[in-house]
Each structure stands twice: as structure tokens, then as C-alpha cells.
Amino acid sequence: MSDGDVAVARDLDNGPLRFLPRPVRDPSRPWLSIPVAWATSFFPSIVLAWIISLIVPGAETPDFGNLPPALVFFAVVVFAPVIETLIMGTVLLILLRFVRPTVAVLISAIGWGVAHSLQVPIWGLTIWWPFLVLSTLFVAYRERSLLAAFALPAIVHAMQNFGPALLIATGQAS
Fold first, then answer.
1. Buried (b) or exposed (e) across 61-72, using 16+ Cβ within 10 A?
2. How many C-alpha atoms does 166 have within 13 Å on its Cβ side?
3. Angle between helices 146-169 and 30-55 (to 10 degrees)
4. CA 129 from centroid of its chain's CA atoms
5. Which helix (H) or strand (E) element contains residue 164?
6. What is the 3-state secondary structure (H, E, C) of 71-99?
7. What does DSSP assign to residue 17?
8. How far apart are CA 95 and CA 16, in angstroms?
9. For the residues of 125-163, what is the DSSP string, one character each?
10. Mean pLDDT in residue range 85-104
11. In the prediction, which pLDDT does 7 show?
């Protein structure tokens, strides 16, 4: 492990993100990191969405218009995870030149919450959590390789979006 790798691991392990499961912060086992990161991302975001729906009933939700279901599914499960991961990773690589890894992750998560709130104001209250996990995964795996840093969060993001996309595409989301 290089000094940079040790510094990132130490920052993620000893900072405010240490509550995240070890496989999200440790780039040694991608086969374990993917399902753990998905569960860590998905289930709390569902709980957050439920709590928000209780506090703000009838809040606006993303509208995909009259797009064909297959196109909505592709956009939400393939296109958005790839494009958003490319943007997220690029921003994180820049941030990591100026701030500690934990700070970069927190800025990223808040930024994605704000960005999604620009489309649907209440959406960012739920979205920040998955992006906290995805950003942590990116930073951790950046120490392994740039390809892994982009691939793992994109895969987890696609898994995160799969269920909601299925509901939207089949007309069952409200």
C-alpha cells in the first residue's frame, strides 16, 4: 500500500464515515463491496423516502412524461448511473487534490442532493444518502484503480435504481 492509499484508508476508517460498513471503505474485495454498498445505499434511502412521504405527503416526484417504458428503464438503470458516475468521479478526483477524502465524499453527497433537488425539490433529501455511499466507494476503490473506482459505483448505482425503474416503467410508481 502506498502512503496515499494508507492516508485514504486512515481518513475513511477514522473519520465521520467510519460508521459505513468496512466493505464500502475497503477496496480489497469488490465481490463483497458491491452487495454491501447496494444494501447500505438502498435500504436507508427507502426508509428516508418513506419518512419524507410522511412529513410531506403528496410531494412532487420525478416525472418521466410519456416516455416509453423501455426507454425510462434504460435511462434510469443504465444511462444515469454511467453518466452520473463519470461526473461524480471527475468531481471527486478534483476535490481529492484539495481536501481530505472524507470532506470530498461529504461535498459530493451534498452536491448530488442539491443537484437532484433542482429537478424535484424534495428528491435531494433522499438522494444524498446513496451518493454518500457511492462517493465513499469511489474514493476507496480509487486507491485500487481508476477503472474500479468508476465501475463499482456505477454498478451499485444501477442496482440502486433497478427496483424504482421497474416500478416506473410498469406504471406502478406513484
1. eeebeeeeeeeb
2. 5
3. 40
4. 7
5. helix 146-169
6. HHHHHHHHHHHHHHHHHHHHHHHHHCCCC
7. G
8. 18
9. HHHHHHHHHHHHHHHHHHTT-HHHHHHHHHHHHHHHHHH
10. 97
11. 73
DSSP label at 42? H
Give pLDDT tens digits for 134-157.
999 999 999 999 999 999 999 999
Whether 136 contacts 17, CB under 8 Å = yes
- Tell me the H-state helices in 15-123: 22-25, 30-55, 69-74, 80-95, 101-119
Quote the cell numbers at residue 173.
410508481
89 in Cβ contact with 31 (< 8 Å)? no
Write the single-letter amino acid at 11: D
Residue 171 has pLDDT above 80, yes or no: no
pLDDT score recorded for residue 58: 83
